[in-house]
Amino acid sequence: MPSGAKKNRFNWYDAIVYSLLLLFTLLTLVPFLFVVGGSFASTKELLEKGVVLFPTQFSLDGYKYIFSTSTFITSLLVTVWITVSGTAVNLVMTILTAYPLSKSELKGQKICMMLIVFSMIFSGGMIPTYLVVKAFGMLDSYWSLIIPGAISGFNLIVIRNFFQQLPEGLEESAKIDGYNDLQILFRIVLPLSMPVIATFALFYAVGHWNTYFNAILYITDSAKWPIQVLLRQIVILSMGGIGDSNAFDVNFVPPAQTVKLAAIVVATVPILLIYPFLQRHFTQGMMLGAMKG
Amino acid sequence: MNGLKRKSLGIAVTIALTVALVSGCGNGNKETTVPATSIASQPASSSESPKTAEPISISLMIPYWNPEAPKANSEVLKEVQSYTNTNLNISWVPASSYNDKLNALIASQDVPQIVYVLANGNKNSGLVNAVRSGMFWEIGPYLKEYPNLSQTSKDLLKQSAIDGKTYGIFKSFPQARDGITIRKDWLNSLQLQEPKTLDELIHVMEAFALQDPDKNGKKDTFAVGSSAGLNGFNNFVLYNGGPNQWGIVDGKITPNFLTKSYKETLDLYKYFYEKNIINQDFPSVTSDFELFNKGKSGMIFGALDDIQSRYADLYKSYPEAELDVISLIEGPDGARVPTRGVFPPQFLFPKTSIKTEEQLKQILGYMDKLADSTVQNLLKWGIEGVHYEVENGKAVRTDAQRFTQEVSQLDFLQYTEYKAATPGTLQPVVEKALKMQVDNFPNAIVNPAQPLISDTFVQNGSELDKIINEARTKYVMGQLDEAGWNKAVEQWRKNGGDKVIAEYSAEYNKLNP
């Protein structure tokens, strides 16, 4: 960095901050551009160059391959369904649990909070969870992807802290007007909590969108698998597979690199499109929900 | 007032909990006798030719390598089921996460009746412990009752046994699978002969890297485009007279890196690296095929049968490329080729879901029928008139894409080598490669540790391998001298390597008195 220290109007501090920001933006953006660019490149060009930001020969082969079967579309729909319904369940459960726990006069509130924190630190592990899911008869149904993680301890605590900060007076006056607790929650508290709810809706939604391993574990019917299962299989195979070629079959043909990139684009763009709509709540929500004592 | 408040708070919590329970059970499948099978993949009952006996329902768990799982309603599967008189409930699992799912199912005692185990399954600790705890049927004694299963090679059964007992029906892969795939057109452009001895091979490799075989005026080619696994290393250990991964030295099962041949190979690769005969970035490359398919390297040490399909990208970019296969390279101890040296994939039969001997016999009966020529043809070619036609007694594939989608993955149901299937028309070089694999098998060098289990290796095998692999990489790149290499070997011995040697040797002597 050259340092010809000039005074007034030119602020070194700002310059450094902005160039760092620009650098980090590029760091995150370029790989993504490579994925998008590469997905429109021909196999040959990708092979020769390795990294293609702007393809010289525009080709849709990767996308053609993906959409040549209905599987991609169905699993995309599955993911959308899991994300929408899962996030709804998440929010309902988390809010209904967080609101009562934000009231210190609730009996057993302390114990409940301790149990929740305990569950954040210690988890049963994969096998016990599997057995629980099995015992509830949720194997091979979408519920297995929605119910077991319906409440995230961390999110619950942040939301509860937010509720605790709401002025007592609001609820008191609503009570005097004859509202019961549920009415207070839905008509007073929730409208005030929109930023927080939007933030956690996004957290939960991204989590569901990326659901992969649980689907493999709990669901045997391949028609019910979310998009990430397909995506991972394509990505791993086009990298030349797992471990040694001994595991491969004799007729194995790995999918082309462009297919991998196109699959990534199709699977990530929808969830990216949700960001702008929640962006304005997002910064606000994180700040408000932050722990304050 | 406070009481009221408390009540409705309580109600809110209760509602939340009830929603959870109700929704969980709302979709509860009835517990069937066979858990973890998919309801949707119930095949339509075939109302064709009335069968004397009811079809047997069998649940299976099978991996697949394609991007998508095979369809449950596939015509080929229907044919297989009607021939074998079964209802197959197959849960297809992506190969990329197969072992995780298998371990979870084993731990929760929730396995289907036929379980496919990936190659090297006897090194998968979850499975080994399950086998030892008696979770699977020992099927060895039953095989003789079946016309096809009884033909299984005794040697290979021994190679695929666990603790000396046969628990599984192994999937036949060509055992002497490996060799060298080489760019014939590069040899021609440099006017070189096909290498037959170790010295000739090294000479060709030098030429491929230094003499511009693709005539583009740039020094941008390698002999071998290697990944972190150092492609070809094991072959060179063998050409130098060393063992296939593990050998027997003074009555002890010893890893190849304690032999002189390994040391020679290390120095040879160091030389390759210095001279740019292998790519400089090998530690960060993930696939041995990458540079080869880019037309930048001239050889691959690996499965000879890859020539059927894995070099499609190369032909796309370089239609003039011409490939050939080589396997016998004369070293100081003669021409030596390795067997695969790893445990083959197997089909196992859990006692948790196959309750009676009766049931086991029925299921083995299904396995036996898979080897009949009708099923072999179905699983290898598909349906005649749809996926292939027969011309002059040879099968010709008619629609490659349809075959890939509908038939190719069904091969994982099959364990035989398709000897009874209609022969296909293959390119001469593919014929040559497949014949090589068969011809080399009788004299191929086996890995004596293949059927053996060392608990220490099952527990820390990957860490132990990592010590050696890292040291090997560093040595080849010149970042480690002889003393450093010896230190790494010492570390390997101390961290459990000596124990592994002792355990393997004890096992070996127990099974081969």
TrEMBL record, chain A:
It comes from the Bacteria. InterPro entries: MetI-like, MetI-like_sf. GO terms for cellular component: plasma membrane. Residues 76-278 form the ABC transmembrane type-1 domain. CDD domains: TM_PBP2. Keywords: Cell membrane, Membrane, Transmembrane, Transmembrane helix, Transport. The keyword Nuclease does not apply. Signal peptide: none annotated. The chain crosses the membrane at residues 12-36, 72-99, 111-133, 145-163, 184-206, 261-278. Belongs to the binding-protein-dependent transport system permease family. This is Putative ABC transporter permease protein YtcP.
Automatic annotation (TrEMBL), chain B:
This is Putative ABC transporter peptide-binding protein YtcQ. PANTHER family: ARABINOSE-BINDING PROTEIN-RELATED, POLYGALACTURONAN_RHAMNOGALACTURONAN-BINDING PROTEIN YTCQ. It comes from the Bacteria. InterPro entries: Bact_solute-bd_prot1, SBP. The keyword Cell membrane applies. The gene is ytcQ_2. It comes from Cohnella abietis. Keywords: Cell membrane, Lipoprotein, Membrane, Palmitate, Signal. Residues 35-50 have a biased composition (Low complexity). Residues 33-52 are annotated as: Disordered.
